[in-house]
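Could you join me in thinking about how sequence relates to backbone shape in a protein? We need material for that, and I hope you will provide a protein of your own picking. Once you have written the record down, we can walk along the chain together:

…
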Amino acid sequence: MRILLVEDDRQLAEGLKQSLKMEGFAVDLVENGKDALHATVVAECDMVILDLGLPDIDGIDVLKTIRKQKKTIPVLVLTARDSTQDKILGLDYGADDYLVKPFEPSELFARLRVFERRLGTASSSLIEIGQVCLDTASHSVVLDGEQVDASRREYMVLKALMENSGRIQSREQLESKLYEWGEEIASNVIEVHIHNLRKKLPPQFIKTIRGVGYSVNKA
């Protein structure tokens, strides 16, 4: 999953970005409302983490505009504004969730997993297809009860495929879930990840739809 993080506190933003990457998210960071609104139009993202105290545009106005642009993208407000009225205002203007700073990262990650389940096909942190079980809470892959040794990017590719089981994911779609703006991407990087995963998973678990992309069929 690809997150747009809108946060003007550079130290907090960089720390949060690294933590989210460790949780298996691709993260694009902007520091003001203008760039946030531009990003939601031109860039592909699956969810937004939005600070309200931005230097140029109030976060509530950013939220209202996002809702006009993309009515269904999940938005989690992450802010120091902790009054009941602020929370009501944020939720009324379209936030899907509201978390007050300071916060426990584990709570933020749990709330983002709820967004992931809503966007994908899983109803819990466990996604089980055939002999393969992927746990989005522990970032682990298990095959027939045995842990599979997968790199972070291999895990992210497999998660994207299993969350969208029965639906074809193009190379471009998979790249967008793994890499951030400005990262150099080798032309065959997805093919390499798929090749490595196939050596660790049952034969034909990941199918190639020639000229289109890849898919994992529902069990």
Notes: Residues 105-119 form the longest helix (15 residues). The chain has a mean pLDDT of 90. DSSP finds eight helices and eleven strands in the chain.
